[in-house]
Design a protein that fits this description.
Layout lengths: L1 H126 L8 E5 L6 E6 L17 H13 L3 H14 L6 H8 L1
Antiparallel strand pairs: 1-2
InterPro entries: TPR-like_helical_dom_sf
Organism: marine metagenome
Protein name: YbgF trimerisation domain-containing protein
Amino acid sequence: MIVSRLIAQFVIVLLLMAPENLLAADREQQQIMADIRMLQEQTTRLQLLMASLDDALQKLPITIDQKLEKIDAKFETHANSARNAFVEQQVSIESVANGVRILRERFDDTNVRISSLSQEIEALRVAIPPMPPSYTRLITDPETGLPLELGPAPSTSLQPGLPASPGISPQRMYDTAWADYTTGQWMLSIQGFEAYIKAFPGSELADDAQFYIG
């Protein structure tokens, strides 16, 4: 009887404790479900974030390529501008250089012409003999002492001198003698150099002519 009574009491205690255990289990299950839903939401957010990052990563090479293309285009534009400016500058420099060369050639030609003209003038000056001074003689009356008439002075003969040099420039005369010298015509060259020295003793080439005469 005692055993039966104890068993009955134990069963009653178990029955009384069962609702509390079930209630605790239900609460734990609800907490687990809430945690699962939270994890699902976080997983969904992570998936959306990963999708967004993947899309951005896929677009990133295109964006970089576009920026690089823009940079290359700008660089090419600046390079073309610099190249064109350099070509224009080279053309300007060549134009100025050509102008300077033309001016130098004209200047040299002018100097040659002036030198040739000076030599021609010197040749003409040497070739033309000096004019004798002209004067008149006063005729007076021996009785009254008054002038009677004016008449030409008696002519005086000039001292004979060296023959005048023909109207040839000093340079041409020297070049002719030099041509005879270089072709082996020694006598003609000596005569030419001697004539040059006589006609133009003060010339710069007179010393050279004397040197070739020996």
